[in-house]
Known about the structure:
The structure holds 2 protein chains of 2 kinds.
Chain A lengths: L2 H19 L7 E7 L4 H19 L3 E6 L3 H9 L6 E3 L3 H11 L11 H4 L2 E10 L19 E2 L7 H17 L4 H13 L8 H9 L6 E5 H11 L4 E4 L3 E5 L3 E3 L1 H6 L3 H9 L4 H9 L3 E2 L2 H6 L8 E3 L1 H5 L2 H9 L4 H7 L3
Parallel strand pairs in A: 1-2, 1-3, 5-6, 8-11
Antiparallel strand pairs in A: 3-9, 4-6, 4-7, 4-8, 4-10
Helix pairs in contact in A: 2-12, 3-4, 6-7, 7-16
Chain B lengths: L21 H7 L9 H27 L4 H9 L1 H34 L5 H7 L2 H4 L2 H12 L4 H7 L9 H26 L2 H9 L4 H30 L4 H5 L9 H10 L3 H35 L1
Helix pairs in contact in B: 2-14, 4-9, 4-11, 7-9, 9-11, 10-11, 11-14, 13-14
Amino acid sequence: MRSFPYFSRLSAAGLALALAALPAAAGPRKLLNVSYDPTRELYEDYNKAFVAHWKSATGEDVSISQSHGGSGKQGRSVIDGLDADVVTLALAYDIDAIAEKAQLLPKNWQTRLPGNSTPYTSTIVFLVRKGNPKGIKDWNDLIKPGVSIITPNPKTSGGARWNYLAAWGYALRHNGNDSAKAREFVAKLYKNVPVLDAGARGATTTFVQRGIGDVALSWENEALLAVKELGSGKVEVVTPSVSILAEPPVAVVERVADKHGNGKLAKAYLEYLYSEEGQDVVARNFYRPQSKTAAAKYAAQFPKVSLFTIKDVFGGWQKAQKTHFADNGVYDQISREGK
Amino acid sequence: MSSVAAPKPSAAGAAPSGGGPPVAAAKRKRHPSVIPGFGLTLGYTVLYLSLVVLIPLSATFLKASHLSWQELLGIFTDRQVLLAFRLSVLCSAEGALINAVFGLLVAWVLVRYRFPGRGFLDSMVDLPFALPTAVAGISLTAVYAPNGFIGSFLEKFGVQVAYTPLGVTVALTFIGLPFVVRTLQPVLEDLDKEVEEAATSLGANRLQIFTRIILPALTPSLFTGVSLAFARALGEYGSVIFISGNMPLKTEIVPLIIVSKLEQYDYAGATAVACGMLVLSFTLLLGINLLQKWAGGASRVR
């Protein structure tokens, strides 16, 4: 082919041009925090606090980027090569997957930081319409006939799995740990669900904007945020007697952070979450803080509720996932019953 | 849409290569192409198609091949998966067929009539292309939900759109519309009005003109438009999940099944379903193409 020398000359020139166009890395050091959807406001707030803190401690300017999406999707992005220095996701299962499938951090990552690597927690509460017309106070009110419940699909939403587990844990406690009874309770509850949105924000929209359902199961931080953004005129938060301690964990993606030379920075970024300043930001953004001082300051925001952990009741995420949410698991079984 | 921007004939003939002047090239070969550089462009085409389509798709099949036959059989006999396939195919087909009728109407109006606001309408057709699908889904749901503008009206007649299979069809109709309209428009524009006038003068009535003159000319591009709309609808995720309600066994589409498998980090299972979808859409598109050839042949005989 006569055209080839010409072609290769052209492509060589193109390649050289492309290489020249690559900017030399300049400006402040960058850190990428890959998180899940509802933490957007939290980390916008926190990043400002941390950048100022780091500047005063070391004199260095850093720039922090956030990435948000469904927790599982974000986990897969990191596995597939998204350069996350730290991950702050909705459930340990997704960080476990990063450790297991991509070996980007050690399998015992959850022991690296205090409190199972969860600097902030939340729980599952109910969002009801103004004045609570159906009189919903606790989980057993949800399975009454005629109550319509909005909760996202636990198969596609990590956050929604906490909702399911919270209901299951309540039923276990009220039925002497009889798991057959718990299954029956949860099956009844999901019979009352008319729409299963794919993600948590979608479910909140369905409940608030579309006016569907009498009650929405929601993370406490999402519920409080919804009330704040809508004013208290439309919806109210009802805290049940018992609920699950939702633990959205954080971890340094060590292999990626080290490759970027960000090991120390990433560690400091997550550790600062546990500081009094960090805890204040956390509580201000409606997550329950670990620090007693912050908890006392924001006590009015977080009503007392008897909390159980996923570890105590379900033996951890791996087990819960396998039993309940894997294909043909308990959730699939109950959603196929009577259809 | 799909054909190259080159003038019609002789693309099949061996074209001269390289940057030599066309006149010199014409002396060497019997059927010179108007555009030079067959070798270069074919090379680019193959490279481009490999990078963009072939390699990602073969990776999909490769990943699915981690599964044993038994596991594959398990996936494709699962009731939930089968029902999702049924819903996806039926709603996509419905959407495409609705667009075949109303897309033709829209294209007709836009081409044949001049009226104020025509340009505005014309650009509105492209909106489903430009809108992020999630936005489309959310706004469609807002309108068709029981408390929405159209939904509240329909509810009086006992028709629920959002969170039912009907809602899925509505979303898929919405995203498919531009494919039909945009493939039909240029053909309609090229259609010679004098032929219709001649038919009238020979005593044909309006229905005859439409079925004998206009429709045969439009059939090939109508098929193309409908199959494009159909194919696009099969893979649509973003807009559908907001309006479908995602109820297991009732309103789950195949892409949702894929996502729920990915949520469990079941890459192999997800890609297996994806492969099933690929094979199915390929078969259906091939079928539509054959049908189109057959219809084209029939109309030419007449």
